[in-house]
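Morning, I've got a small favour to ask if you have a moment. You're getting the sequence in one-letter code plus the fold written as tokens. Thanks so much in advance, here it is:

===
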Amino acid sequence: MTELRSAENETIATRLREELARRRISRQALADMARISLSTLEKALSGARPFTLATVVRIEDVLGASLRQQAAAAPGLEAIFAPEGMGSYSRPAVRWIEGSYLTLRPAFSQPDAVYAYRTEIYWDEPSGHLRFAESERADSAFTQAGFVSMPNLSGHTYLVTSEQGQYRLVMLGRATRERRMFGMLSTLQVGTGSQLVPVACPIALVPLDQIEVVEFGLVDDDAYRALLGQATTSDFCRWYG
């Protein structure tokens, strides 16, 4: 187990606290996504225990950003175009999508209820493309994070989680004038025993600053149901069979 030097630990802890604050991700959510204990994270951030290289790598993978000191980039070489496989979008062209969103989908466990959580979409400077990270989920162990693809060919936005060959996909149609996005979520639901069952459902992302009273978790609210209903009533996604 490789432990990092004291000075490097302080730098990593400072950068990590800044990332958590900027993305509004709780320490518990980060620990769950990185598959480390909350105690390990808390002690490392407080300086009571040094970060190990393995822990830092796990956290960097979740955040999609480097916390360790990197060589300074040459002037003018900052990446402003996403990779071709994500649509080759430019930073200026996608600034409108950056921000915090109230995310709504049907509750799998309770008929007519809506499951609500936060999704943060942001530009990852080291990688040169958009990323997303979820938080405020009642089932924090299933919190997702990944990259954002925005190809011109379809005009859709894709939020993609890829972890050890396993994928979860949110496909969103063109944003409305209010920057609201609607579409379909394709994921895995816990079934009988340890079985995972493929499921798909409508999903809505609404800028948080447009919501007067924000609730997270299982919500029984007509306004939330109406927002989610726009995914199908406005033809952002369709169901057959």
Notes: Residues 65 and 209 are 26 Å apart (CA to CA). The chain is about 25% helix and 30% strand.
